[in-house]
Amino acid sequence: MKSKQILKIIVDILMTVTLLLLMAYSLVYGSNPAVGEAVHEWLGTGMFVLFVLHHFFNRKWSFSVLKGKYTPYRVVQTILVVLILLTMCGSMFSGILLSRTVFSFLGIRGGQAAARTLHMLSAYWGFVFMSLHLGLHWSVMMGMARKLTKKSSKVCKWILRTIAALIAVYGVYAFIKRDFGNYMLLRYHFVFFDFEELLALFLLDYAAIMGLFVYAGYYISVLLTGRYGKKKR
Ligand code: HEM
User: Fold this and answer.
1) Measured from the CB, is residue 103 less than 6 Å from ligand 1?
2) Which of 14, 107, 134, 189 is the most buried (most CB within 10 A)?
3) Model pTM?
4) Which of the listed residues 50, 86, 98 should we mutate to test ligand 1's pocket, taking the one with most ligand atoms within 8 A of CB?
């Protein structure tokens, strides 16, 4: 595997981990919410850098967006990319307005209530769109993983598929338990964090919710292309 491909995978993994940590907001820094808030702002800024790198590595795709035929798969893929771009801009823009550490030197005041609403909407919808996007490209990721490891047996494939299904089922439970849908629909205007809770448990639930949407994204791609377990373009 070429070093560029390895770098691409590293950026994607870092984005996934950073996204999960961002959703935990100040829980990331245990019992000191003030430090946690600053860590969140630095992680958000890091996410932006990773997002730019991700686009740099995939620039061939962006440059050919107006070229060629649009299959149903490509339509859905492109709509998701646009939605991710919008939610990422929403998170960054509102994050800068709300910033109390990293961008506080800008001295921006006012519009806090609107920025908070935009931040929450962008964070929760962005999480779903990014997870679906990951699912849509899951077969490409698996293809890369296959290059790194030896070919897997049929039994191994079915074991992995069963694990994926179990994660998705737990993801439904975590989605309900964590009130994820209510945050997406703005039924609450603040996210409730339990500062007594272990960060690992929060991350486990959010990783399962991510898994649920990756699973959905993968099967949407199977439906759109009719190909199961193979690389699609
Ligand atoms: C993809 C990027 C980001 C995601 C997914 C994300 C996610 C979140 C979440 C889930 C919360 C808690 C919910 C809330 O109270 O609104 C939050 C709050 C916050 N985030 Fe971010 N964030 C991102 C980027 C940023 C950036 C770049 C900054 C600033 C540099 C930032 C600054 C803040 C601040 C100040 C709050 C507290 C808002 C308040 O006072 O209610 N975030 N973020």
Assistant:
1) yes
2) 134
3) 0.91
4) 98
